Amino acid sequence: MTGEILELCRAMGAPEDREELLLLLVQAVEKDLTGRLKAGVKPEDCGSAFPLAAAMLVMDALEGAAGGLEEVTSFTAGDLTIHRQPASGRERRDQALRLLSPWTGDTGFSFRGVRG
Asked: For burial by CB atoms within 10 Å, which of 3, 58, 91, 95 has the most?
């Protein structure tokens, strides 16, 4: 599965000069996502959703490590002023976790610390 996730990351534009970091991130994300699966469910049971979700999370982490998660909040042309702030990075992460929700049982709902 690690190789498949690496290939998807490369297809998503992972830089070649970050291979060592990329491999470490893939292994960490793969372990984390495997731990989120329902009892008895293996990554292979999720079909293409598992490697795709993992690659999306790896790319987010890779961009964060490179300092690339910033949003332009305002831009002025006269005397050029650009204001940037860190991006939340939650959109791609949320989408990746939604891909796996049928196998994790995670509905995104929690009540008093009890996940629904």
From this structure: 58
